Amino acid sequence: MRTQVAIIGGGPSGLLLAQLLHRHGIDSVVLERKTKDYVLSRIRAGVLEQGLVQLMEQAGCADRLRSKGHVHDGTLIAYGDTMFRLDFTDLTGTPVIVYGQTEVTRDLYAAREAAGGPIEFEVEDVTIHDADTDRPHVTYNVGGAARRIDCDFIAGCDGFHGVSRQAIPLTIRREYEKVYPFGWLGVLSETPPVNPELIYANSPRGFALCSMRSDTLSRYYIQCSLSDKPEDWTDAAFWQELKRRIPPDQAERLVTGPSIEKSIAPLRSFVTEPMRWGRLFLCGDAAHIVPPTGAKGLNTAASDVHYLFTGLRQFYDTGATDGIDSYSAKALARVWKVERFSWWFSSLMHRYPDQSDFDLRIQIAELEFLRTNRAAQQAMAENYVGLPY
Ligand code: APR
Ligand code: PHB
């Protein structure tokens, strides 16, 4: 088989890139290790920056997002007996859209299928060849048959556990990592959200987050120990702990119900450099991970896709390579700022096992400053709604 861009990974990064390329007349083949149902069963964050919404628009995939997504003009931050609101629209002129990543992925699959764009599911042993030459190719197995795709470029959109990053030699690749000493226990429940806007709570018992997917579907998280297992937490224990970590009037109002999904995610910050090697480009979780505080994972994948699409489009339109040549530097400049924000917001909101009384006082001072200082609020809000591409 021959295509212009071989895309490894059928998560949101790979599918968004495929759809943008398709709309510009550039062919691609998407290779996905799992089934579509499996990809769509993964529950991820649900806050979209304007940049991602515009890319979905450009990809022709924004109709459902526009009709079913909720515009959020602000968020609440609670600590001690205090709760305050950050008004994103007032501070930055921009709201965020609450719409699940699973739905984004579903919309992208629908568009890919409507366009008749090739996707191979359940592929095995995907291997990248000759990425450092002008004639790269990818080999893989599907249903017991060996296949080969010759292409101009390879987009490594295969997530943190994919093969693309590993294809870059260790003499060139440099990785940066920070692992946090706690996880997030998340519950999805068919209950109305406790509050129309998200609540981020720093409590002495640990962090809690009240989020949502719709008026009838809530998503809640609590900071938990890394040794905890989801089955250690009954629904009753989860609700009780959540109530203890959010302001009392919110706890009183909280509607509980059976969980329809319960999972634990570790928190990690990770960046690999460079994001390009020859004709291989890394996008999204393949190149970087952020802790979920602030919901930057999918949004940062989207900015990578934007830079890569812009470079590829320029190459196919004019033959110029400056867009693809500057891809890694441009993507990484934004990635590191998002890494900083996600790390900062995580540090602000969680209890750390080794935190001293001094550290706790600093955390409270920082929250107080954020509550009372418009410049600090503006810096927070600009990062939350999404830095410009
Ligand atoms: N071959 C083919 N496909 C692969 C391989 C492989 N060797 N390894 C992984 N994949 C697939 C995975 O099954 C997954 O569907 O690549 C896809 C990667 O998708 P994600 O992990 O969702 O990563 P990405 O598309 O970059 O999405 C960005 O934002 O909120 C965050 O982590 C969250 O998924 C999210 C991400
Ligand atoms: C979510 O709804 O899953 C979510 C929202 C905001 C975050 C993280 C996760 O900061």
Could you explain the architecture of this structure?
The strands form 4 sheets. The chain has an 8-stranded mixed sheet. It has a 6-stranded mixed sheet with strand order 8-2-1-12-19-18, with helices on one face. The protein is built from 13 helices and 20 strands. Strand 14 (199-203) and strand 15 form a beta hairpin. The longest helix has 23 residues, at 327-349. The protein is α+β, with helices and mostly antiparallel strands. It is globular. It has helices at residues 12-23, 36-41, 50-58, 63-68, 88-92, 101-115, 235-245, 248-253, 297-318, 322-325, 327-349, 357-372, 374-385; strands at residues 5-8, 28-31, 47-48, 70-72, 74-79, 82-87, 96-98, 119-120, 124-129, 137-142, 145-150, 153-156, 174-189, 199-203, 206-214, 217-224, 259-273, 276-277, 280-282, 288-289. The mean pLDDT is 97. The chain binds adenosine-5-diphosphoribose (APR) and P-hydroxybenzoic acid. P-hydroxybenzoic acid binds next to strand 15.
